[in-house]
Amino acid sequence: MRKYANLPINQLVSDVAVDPVHVRELADSIKISGPISPVLVRDDTLELIDGFHRVAAIKELGFGEVECILTPCNDETFWDLRIMSATLHKAVTFSRAVDWIDESFVKSSIASMHNSAYAAFHAVRDGFAKPEVKDWVQSKAQKWGLSIQTIENWLETKRRLAPELYAEAKKDVIASEAISVKHYDEIGRGLPGRAELQRAVVDKVKREGLTADQTREVARALRQASDQEEVKAVLERPFTRRAEDVVREVKVERLISAPEVRKAREEAERIEMAADVVRLKLLMEEVAAFGEEFDLALLDNLGTEHVKGLISAIDRAQSSMQSIRNRLEELAKEPRRAIISGEYKVLPSQE
């Protein structure tokens, strides 16, 4: 039977991380509104079942005691009550419940039949679980108020994430609105066991405010990247498209920027510029040949593409010719050498 009691706050066992911001907000609320609802405590061990933030807030305010509801329970009931209480606090359900579900499994009668809670829930979902395993999984999911699919997803996220990232995920899900359980689920599924890349994607999600679907595409793009250079490009460029589009764009840019391709492009541009100079020279000679009698109406017979091409050629050729003229003017200021009767002769400056 449950009973109420005021207990010294330092005697209570609280083993759950809390959000400092929420603790301060709760403490401010207590100062204004007064006492809050009692916290739930296991009677034989004084372990908190529910009320972790409340206890932290009361302690921060300097109170020595806290009102408690002492609840008699065995290990199985203790973990059930903790998980059930976690589902009432949506902001912390994942961060608390996942580890507690594992603890509940370890203390269960089916622990010897599977090597983890994930394996048990996965077996039920795939339809090859033993009857006693199926009964345990279904009864627990119903009691905890969670679907078997949700529990399996959470346990898989924990299994696939690097340990240090999982520990961080539990804190982020409490304190951050920018990243959710779904984000971490996509990262864990998309990049299992790749701790460095998982960390990089988490940073990218927070930096760019990506959705869970976009996070999945980033993970896919990283799996398709062929080397570190492509991985770096995927992580650095803002992500707005499907994985295939991003990887294709990265590969094309890398190909274009290759030294041999760049050299070929530069050579092609030089050839095109030289051709433009020739085309413009021929046009100018034709105009000069007609002199004042050149009929501009002759240009009216050119097609649209020819007109645009000729304009572009003139622009490029004029630019090239200006560069040539500038260089010639520089050379004109210097003493030059010319070949006369097989011998070099210094030409005077034109200045």
Give a verbal description of the structure.
- This protein is an alpha+beta fold and 351 residues long.
- Helices cover 63% and strands 9% of the residues.
- It has 15 helices and 6 strands.
- The chain has helices at residues 20-33, 52-60, 75-86, 93-106, 117-126, 131-144, 148-160, 163-175, 181-190, 195-208, 212-224, 228-236, 243-256, 259-290, 304-332; strands at residues 3-8, 39-42, 48-50, 65-71, 336-340, 343-347.
- The strands form 2 sheets. It has a 4-stranded mixed β-sheet. Strands 5-6 form a two-stranded antiparallel sheet.
- Strand 2 and strand 3 (48-50) form a beta hairpin.
* Low-confidence sequence ranges: 339-346
User: How would you describe the shape?
Assistant: elongated
Q: Please state roughly what percent of the residues sit in beta strands, choosing from under 5%, 5-15%, 15-25%, 25-35%, 35-45% or over 45%.
A: 5-15%
Helix/strand structural class: alpha+beta
Number of beta-strand segments? 6
Strand and helix map with partners:
Elements: E1 3-8, H1 20-33, E2 39-42, E3 48-50, H2 52-60, E4 65-71, H3 75-86, H4 93-106, H5 117-126, H6 131-144, H7 148-160, H8 163-175, H9 181-190, H10 195-208, H11 212-224, H12 228-236, H13 243-256, H14 259-290, H15 304-332, E5 336-340, E6 343-347
Short recap of the structure:
The chain has 15 helices and 6 strands.
